[in-house]
Amino acid sequence: MSPDPSIVLHDYWRSSASWRVRIALALKGLAYRRVAVDLLAGAQRRPRHRALNPQGLVPALEIDGLRLTQSLAILDYLEETRPAPPLLPADPGGRARVRALALAVACEIHPLSNLRVLDRVEALAGAEARAAWNRDNIAAGLAAIEALLDHPGFTGRFCHGDAPGMADCVLVPQLYNASRWGVAFGHLPRIAAVAEACAAVPAFAAAHPDRFAPTPRPG
Fold first, then answer.
1. What interhelical angle do 189-199 and 127-149 show, nearest 10?
2. Mutual orientation of helices 71-81 and 16-27 as an angle, nearest 10°?
3. Contact, 89 vs 153, CB < 8 A?
4. Which residues of 1-12 are buried (b: 16+ CB within 10 A; e: fewer)?
5. 111 with 71, same domain?
6. Range of the structural domain that residue 68 is part of
7. Which residues, in sequence order, are bridge partners of residue 8?
8. In this structure, are residues 169 and 24 in contact, taking their beta carbons and an 8 Å threshold?
9. What is the DSSP-derived secondary structure letter of residue 58?
10. What is the pLDDT along the chain (219 residues), one digit of tens a residue?
């Protein structure tokens, strides 16, 4: 798809929060223009980006004349304004379950693995403590997600049913982070099954960080 200049995503290629939004945009079939924000260079703290997001975070999405922040709020907006294909099930109980799964990652695992937190842990206790902190946090969080998925309503190939939705958009980037930090999840059968199902969906591949990695500068 050719980029739609009316939809602009400001993101960092390996940000899991940004990746959630890229997956959702791909699932919804929405083309967009991407503006890279280099977190390692501190671009998120510069006035230009803070004008979009005063928190100095990614992602930020410009759409429909709005400037939206916070990945789950963005996913909700996309669901409300572009409901097909749906990211949430039709029944209230199912929607609550899917949102709980998404929040279990976005509000419990992700904040403790945020770049700012990891930098602070390393400053206080060193690089080994940083790695141990992150591995322990991710492993414990994924174990809890596995338990949340282990319920009678877990049917189909994805977090809820036979089509990917909001919970899958949030879980898959966290699994990428787990692999980066050496945290295995193959022993968690429901998570492993969801990961396999999502890997076969083109939208997840289209949003993968490897497609957006910056090109190394020569020399």
1. 90
2. 10
3. no
4. eeeeeebbbbbb
5. no
6. 8-84
7. 33, 62
8. yes
9. S
10. 566 678 999 999 999 999 999 999 999 999 999 999 998 888 898 998 999 889 988 999 999 999 999 999 999 999 999 999 999 999 999 999 999 999 999 999 999 988 889 999 999 999 999 999 999 999 999 999 999 998 766 678 999 999 999 999 999 999 999 999 999 999 999 999 999 999 999 999 999 999 999 876 555
Cα–Cα distance for residue pair 70/182, rounded to 1 Å: 27
Residue 190 host element (H or E): helix 189-199
Q: Residues near 208 by Cβ (< 8 Å), separated by ≥ 6?
A: 19
Q: How far apart are CA 198 and CA 207, in angstroms?
A: 12
In a domain, 216, yes or no: no
Residue whose tokens read 């969080």: 141
Task: Report DSSP state, residue 20.
Answer: H
- Which of 32, 57, 84 is the last residue before a domain boundary? 84
- Token digits of residue 90: 């039709």
Q: Are residues 79 and 97 in the same domain?
A: no
pTM: 0.92
Domain end marker among 84, 101, 121: 84
Most distant CA atoms of the chain, gap in Å: 56
The tally of domains found in the chain comes to 2
Q: Are residues 33 and 70 in the same domain?
A: yes
